[in-house]
Amino acid sequence: MANTPSYEVPPQLRDMAETSLEQARKAFESFIGTARRTTDTLQGSADLARTSTQDIYARGLDYAEQNVRAALDLGQKLAAARSLPEAAQIQAEYVRERFAAMQAQAKELGGLAQGAFQQGAERARAAVQQGADEARKAVEQGQDAAQQAANEAQQAAH
Predict the structure, then answer these.
(1) Cβ-proximal residues to 155 (8 Å cutoff; 6+ apart), any chain
(2) Sequence-distant contacts of 90-98: CB under 8 A, at least 24 apart
(3) Spatial separation of the C-alpha atoms in residues 49 and 39, rounded to whole Å
(4) Residue from 22, 17, 33, 24 nearest 141 by CA
(5) Could you report the per-residue pLDDT of 101-157, keeping only the tens digit for each?
(6) Contact present, 13 and 153 (Cβ < 8 Å)
(7) 150: how many CB neighbours lie within 10 A of its CB?
(8) What is the dihedral of CA 29, 34, 35, 39, to 10 degrees?
(9) CB-side exposure of 103: number of CA atoms within 13 Å?
(10) How far apart are CA 14 and CA 7, in angstroms?
(11) N- to C-terminal Cα distance for the chain?
C-alpha cells in the first residue's frame, strides 16, 4: 500500500474558518430573527384590522337597532295620532331626527374606518421598515464577516 502524505491544516486557518462560520451563523440568526419579528408585527396588524372590522360591524348593528326602534316608535305615534295634521307633524319630526341621527352615524362609522385603516397602515409600514433595516444590517454583517475572513485567509496564505 502506498503511503499517502499527511497534510495538517494550520491552526490559524482552522481558527479563521471557525470564526467565519460563527460570524455567518450570527448574521443568519439576526436575519431569521428579523423575519420572525416582521411576521409577528404583520400578524398584529391583521389582528388589528380584524378587531377594527368587528367594532365597525357591531356599531353598525347598534345603529340598525336604533333606527328600527325609531321606526317602530314612529308607527306607534302615528297610530295614536288623532288627526291628519298631527300625523304629518309626527312624520316631519321623525324625518328630521332620523336624518340628523343617520348623518352622525355615518360620520362616526367613517371615522372608525379611517382610523382603523390609518392605524393598520402605520403598523404595517413600521414593520416593513424595521424588517428592511434589520435585514440590511444582517447583510452588512455577513459582508463584513466574509471580507474579514477573506483578509485573514489572504494573510494566512502569505
Answers:
(1) none
(2) 94/70, 97/70, 98/67, 98/70
(3) 15
(4) 24
(5) 999 999 998 898 888 888 877 877 887 787 778 778 777 777 777 677 677 767 766
(6) yes
(7) 12
(8) 140
(9) 6
(10) 13
(11) 35
At 43, list the grid cell: 400578524
3-state DSSP of 105-132 = HHHHHHHHHHHHHHHHHHHHHHHHHHHH
Section 34-38 average pLDDT: 77
Confidence bin at 97 (pLDDT 50/70/90): very high
d(CA 158, CA 149): 14
Q: Would you state the cell numbers that stand for residue 125, as one nine-digit string?
A: 409600514
Residues 6 or more apart whose Cβ sits within 8 Å of residue 138: 27, 28, 30, 31, 34
Q: Which amino acid is at 107?
A: K
Q: Among all chains, which residue has been given the C-alpha cell 328630521?
A: 96
CA angle 69–72–76, rounded 5-degree value:
135
Count CB atoms within 10 A of the CB of residue 92.
Answer: 10
